[in-house]
Amino acid sequence: MIKKLSLVSLFTLLPASFYFAQTTVFAYLKDAEGKPVERAEVDLKGNDNDVTADKIGYFQLVDLQPGHYQLVISKPNYETKVMEFDVASEEKRKDLGVVTLYSTLTNADQGLAIIDSDEDDDNSSSSGSQSSTVGLLQSSMDVFSRIAAFDLGFYWFRPRGIDGRTGESMLNGVSMVKSDNGNVDFSNWGGLNEITRYPEISSNHSPSEYAFGGNSSVVYKNTRASEYRKGFQFTQSLTNRNYRNRTSLRYSSGMSKSGWAFTAMGARRWAEEGIQEGTFYDAYGAYLGIEKKFNDKHTMTLNLIGAPYRRSTASPSTQEVYDYRGVHYNSYWGWQDGEKRSERVRRGFQPLFQLQDFWKINKNSNLWTSASYQFGKDKGSRLDWNGVSNPSPAYYRNLPSYYVNSIIYNSTNNTLDPALYTTLTDAYNTSLQSWQNGDPNVTQLNWGQIYANNQKADAVDQAEMGRLYGISGKRSKIYLVDDVSDDKIFNAATHYTYNFNDRTKFILNVSYQNYRSELYREVKDLLGGEYAINVDPFKESAKPGSTGFYNTLDPNIQLREGDRMTYNYILRRQEAKVNPGLKLSTGNFDIFVSALAGYSSSNREGLFKHYLYENSYGKTKDYNFWNYGLKGQIVYRINGRNFLVYNGAVFNQAPFLEDLFINPRVNGLVNPNIRSTVYTANDLSYVMNTPFIKIRATAFLVDTENETNVQRFFADGIQLNNTNPDGTVSQVQSAFVTQVMSNVEKRNMGAELGVDVKILPTLSVQGLASYGQYTYRNNPDVFLVSDASGSNVASFGKAYIKNYKQGGTPQEAFSLGLRYNSPKYWWIGANWNYLDNNYLDPAPALRTENFVQNPYSSTPYIDLTNEQVRDLLKPTKLPSAFFFNANVGKSFVFGKYYVLLTASVNNILDNKRYITGGFEQTRETKAPDYALDYNSPAPSFGPKYWYTQGRSYFINLQFRF
């Protein structure tokens, strides 16, 4: 009696290695009910030996040489299966058993191959290599990861609370992580879903064959032209999210007899207005892949990717604003000539050119080599102003609360006379009525007024400009600027594997990145005026008697559109990494050990000489960091269906450029106490994989040390020293500051459970539970630097945030859903999701002794009690929420044509109370002033939030021909 055997192999995929003997490999394809699956396509990667299953689901591959192989099995209405196997030199025939294919989009068994084997479940020590090479591959997601990504991810759930900057995203062998902030700009290949859809994933901190990675997964994508389905694929999508429409067309030639393959794709996503008010979206994507197979041992690919885009963004707001205008309110736009115009528009085009070489050196070893070059600009517009107040309608002085809080403030200080009370009351009533009625001249940007003010001949201002700088004309006091990053990124990497035998393999990854980014601000639109000036409007408070020039090397401060202003500098970083690994199987164990040695060198070069900073101009010294790491994975096969999996990691990560330099826009200062961040991560999982029950239960613990956090904001009452030109020292109470929190320690611990149970062959129940405790473990050091203090770094001591909750994600999540898959190739599913224990990150400057210290007596404020301080600084907990999602689909086959129609709805009950994120404002940094605002009916400086979008839908039509 043949037993069904489901084997877990958490090893990532390999190219085939060819030897000299010849073997026939065969298997049978069946569906979940045991019925044969006929006419499925069976593609052997890297080989022309592709076949089609016959009427009983049988297929065979002949004349295979010894080595390691990967199969892709696909058929319309069924999920694509990816499986790997080994061929030993002494084998003449190899039976892969029965491979089970599941109906399309069940999402229950993606990537799972169930194998019938002649060997007993417990006989894992036998000589066959199937014990560790066929099963649930890293390219598939278990039920927990799938629900977390596709259902809870829509509500900003982040598994284990881990920052995405600790992960690795790779495209065609090279890292796409940017050195400035550690993030990945997915817009660089936006819209190319059908090209980049099926990555290989090493989840969380588990080791990967392709890179050492971090704590939040290694995602590896390859875009080889020959690996896409031959023919055309057209896709049309409709949605009400960030964009409204998506259209794409892909064509693949397949591999020709002469060894050439081509794949091309174009896509567009657009919306005149998204779900948020005043937002639009217009993005294109293009891909061209060319592959040349010289022989069975040597293949090269060229990939060209470009995705120009233009889109506007939405603002965060205080609760007061949302109460007036609803959760879709956006302060970044206003009416101009009957059309909505946004000040915040992102535009970018940074194309990628990638060349990859695949070489089978000999029967045991393979070498993949990649080279990549990316260049182009990313621009983000915003309003800037000089000599006038902030024009944003949501600026605190433009809201009704400003007048209420002015009454409270003057009453507290005994300065509220009847005339002032009447004035403030009338102003409040007028403002309140405008906001409640939605007067666009008040609640949105008033473009008409901005233009009128800039075009008006201001005699006083003109005389002042003439007297101070000898310039004339109508000065724009409010204007649009672009913050530009002009990147040039070169990557080279090599991936080498050596198979000692069919159970032991050595891996070596070597990578190099050269990152150069020039960052500057330029005038985009003068909005009716004739020029803007490149002078700091706060120069008299920052440095009395100074010129205030942002660039003292250029005496021309009268700027036109396209001129650079405020800042201009270059960030550079070179980084090299060596990542050896060893995988072996012995007895009931699969073991994977991966190591890291890395070196990075970073610097800043200032192109402007700022009037406040001597170190603003020229190149800094190189800041060098060595990094090391070790990861390990042990899989213990209890039997063919039950497994224990341990993952452990300890490594350090060099600071990214934005963490290294305090305020690179205007100086070359480096963060105090800057060090590499150290991570220690462990998890232990129990995994069950059967055709009808799948379970993953995991406990995890992740510790972070020496982390650096940088924030920039305007603060009052900060008490920073300023050195005047005559050498005297004065104190400044208000300024734009850069806050550095160093030596941060965090702990992320908890448990995860994912369950998938087939009640019937066509009906399954899926569930997820995640419970976490993500906290700060210490009281980090806080430093502040401002324009008012020149190059002085002020120490604010400790931020007392130990045991505070980390922000940015719910720390508890639950999901329960049903999926029905009809034999007639349609499906329907629905799930319930619950999210709780979501917090805002604590603002460090508010948790220092400076907050309670009277600057005049250097003692705590007399009337301030410990209970009051605890109330003022208690963690900001966000509301819990639950949501219902549903999806449905149907596929059709008409001869050679395949049609797939799917639809999904998220947040069916239109819950708009859920806050996806936000931040505490650090405007008032002294307890008495903070308390006045905090206890106000509508705080001016309360937290700013982003709310969930409400009910959304996505409809997708796919047509293959």
From TrEMBL:
The keyword RNA-binding does not apply. InterPro entries: Beta-barrel_TonB_sf, CarboxyPept-like_regulatory. Coiled coil: none annotated. It is found in: Cell outer membrane. Pfam families: CarboxypepD_reg (PF13620). Keywords: Cell outer membrane, Membrane, Signal. It comes from Chryseobacterium gilvum. This is Carboxypeptidase-like regulatory domain-containing protein. SUPFAM superfamilies: Carboxypeptidase regulatory domain-like, Porins. It comes from the Bacteria. Its main location: membrane. Residues 1-21 form the signal peptide.
